[in-house]
Every structure is written in structure tokens, then in C-alpha cells.
């Protein structure tokens, strides 16, 4: 089932939402639209995984900076 | 203090100076401010060696103090902290460089990155990540690290710096996309991940 027009997002719009949600809560309509886009798109879930990798990497870097960042 | 004499303690503190300076510079993007924040941190530590007494990690304790001093410095200099870089580079939207077709769909799908932060070369990856963070334009770099290193919420950042949310979000959006692009160029596309 294709999402109806108000909930349709392009990859570019979906990508912008995935970046934005790192720093703010998205409105419910945008969350829903993004979820629907990710379900039918092959490319955007890859961008989503890249964002997740960045989030995990920053968390690890933060931990590393607090404890042993100079022991290279 | 446990087994350390005060002189040993002082020496151990001073030995951490360059380490602290590295993170202060990364966050503040200004050598003079960074020097001040680190000096303040070391003075605060020297003033209360008993506060370290029960803690296992000197470095962890010092970084925690440094973070407080840095938040103070950012708040005091908030006008300069968010001053636009003025360079065209700082104004550009990195989204424009991504492979989107005219209809808004990807003309080339984003790459599979895997989990480089978990594998054996994670240290090298961390070094690239830090270098990419360092390469962000100053305002973007400061705001990004306030989120990611100081772990402030977007609301807290807006409050500390008297910044509007939309202004903050634009800068963070650019910083995140720029960082993504830098990682892709320097780690994922460079063969380091192969």
C-alpha cells in the first residue's frame, strides 16, 4: 500500500529528518511519514544505519576521551 | 589523598595538561580560551586534592572538572562562540553535495558502513573521527561537541548561548552531514575499511 500524498516523503526529505532527529524530537506526523518511507525505500535505511554508526562512534569516542584518549 | 604526597599529586596533575588542552581546543576552537579553561581546571584540582581521594581515575576526574569550566567559558563568550564564520564554506548546505536526483530520490544509494567502532581498528577509526570533528567550521564544531562531548540537550545549548532553536538546528544539521561526508571520504571510501 502506497502512503497517501500528505505522508509521502522523498529520500532527500527523509534524509533531512534522519539528521534532524539526532538533535530534536520530530512531530508525530513526520515520524510516521519517515517510518513509512523507510519501509518502502531501499536507499534510506542505509543512511539510517550510517547515522546509527555515527551515534555509536561518538558515544565510544566520548568514553575514550574521558579515560584513555592519549594511550594510542 | 591516599598514598600520594602532594608533590607527586601536583606532578601527576601537570602531566595531564597537554591531554586536557587537546580536548579544550577541540571544543572551544580558540587557543587562549582553551589555555584558560585548562589552567582553571588544574587550579581547581590543586585546591581540593581531597576530592580526588576516593576516585580511581585522575583523568576522568580532571575531564569532569574541565567540562564544567568549558561550559562556563562558552556561556561567558556566547556572542563569539556563535559568531558566523563568514566563510562561504560555513554557509553551504552539505546536503547539496549528496547524490540526490531532481525528484529527490537517491541517484546513488548510501554505502554500507558496517560497525568500524566495534572492530579491531576502532582506535584508528576514533582518530579519523576526531580529525573530522576538528575539521568542522568553528561554530559548527563548537555546537556539535556541546551535543556530543559535553552532552548538553539542544534546549540547554540554546539557553547557554542565547541561540534560537532554528539557528542551532541548522548548524547541527550541517555539522552532522559534514562529519558523515568526511568519514565516508577518509575511512569508508579510502580503503581503510576494506
TrEMBL record, chain B:
The keyword NAD does not apply. Residues 128-179 form the RNA polymerase sigma factor 70 region 4 type domain. Keywords: DNA-binding, Sigma factor, Transcription, Transcription regulation. Gene3D superfamilies: 1.10.1740.10, Winged helix-like DNA-binding domain superfamily/Winged helix DNA-binding domain. InterPro entries: RNA_pol_sigma-24-rel, RNA_pol_sigma-70-like, RNA_pol_sigma-70_dom, RNA_pol_sigma70_r2, RNA_pol_sigma70_r4_t2, RNA_pol_sigma_r2, RNA_pol_sigma_r3/r4-like, WH-like_DNA-bd_sf. Residues 19-79 form the RNA polymerase sigma-70 region domain. It comes from the Bacteria. Belongs to the sigma-70 factor family. ECF subfamily. PANTHER family: RNA POLYMERASE ECF-TYPE SIGMA FACTO, RNA POLYMERASE SIGMA FACTOR HI_1459-RELATED. This is RNA polymerase sigma factor. It comes from Hydrogenophaga electricum.
Amino acid at each position: 500500500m502506497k502512503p497517501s500524498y500528505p505522508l509521502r516523503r522523498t529520500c532527500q526529505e527523509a534524509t533531512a529528518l534522519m539528521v534532524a532527529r539526532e538533535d530534536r524530537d520530530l512531530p508525530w506526523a513526520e515520524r510516521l511519514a519517515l517510518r513509512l518511507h523507510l519501509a518502502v525505500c531501499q536507499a534510506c535505511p542505509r543512511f539510517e544505519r550510517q547515522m546509527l554508526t555515527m551515534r555509536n562512534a561518538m558515544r565510544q569516542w566520548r568514553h575514550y576521551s574521558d579515560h584513555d584518549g592519549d594511550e594510542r | 589523598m591516599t598514598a600520594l604526597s602532594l608533590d607527586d599529586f601536583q606532578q601527576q596533575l601537570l602531566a595531564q595538561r597537554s591531554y586536557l588542552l587537546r580536548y579544550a581546543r577541540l571544543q572551544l576552537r580558540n587557543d587562549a580560551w582553551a589555555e584558560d579553561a585548562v589552567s582553571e581546571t588544574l587550579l581547581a584540582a590543586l585546591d581540593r586534592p581531597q576530592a580526588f581521594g576516593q576516585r580511581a581515575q585522575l583523568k576522568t576526574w580532571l575531564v569532569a572538572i574541565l567540562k564544567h569550566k568549558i561550559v562556563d567559558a562558552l556561556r561567558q563568550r556566547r556572542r563569539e562562540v556563535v559568531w558566523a564564520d563568514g566563510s562561504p564554506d560555513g554557509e553551504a548546505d552539505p546536503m547539496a553535495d549528496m547524490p540526490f536526483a531532481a525528484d529527490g530520490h537517491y541517484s546513488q544509494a548510501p554505502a554500507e558502513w558496517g560497525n568500524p567502532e566495534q572492530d579491531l581498528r576502532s582506535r584508528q577509526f576514533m582518530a579519523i573521527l576526531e580529525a573530522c570533528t576538528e575539521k568542522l567550521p568553528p561554530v559548527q564544531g563548537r555546537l556539535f561537541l556541546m551535543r556530543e562531548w559535553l552532552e548538553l540537550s539542544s534546549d540547554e545549548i540554546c539557553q547557554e548561548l542565547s541561540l534560537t532553536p532554528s539557528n542551532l538546528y541548522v548548524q547541527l544539521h550541517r555539522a552532522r552531514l559534514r562529519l558523515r561526508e568526511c568519514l565516508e571520504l577518509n575511512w569508508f571510501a579510502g580503503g581503510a575499511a576494506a
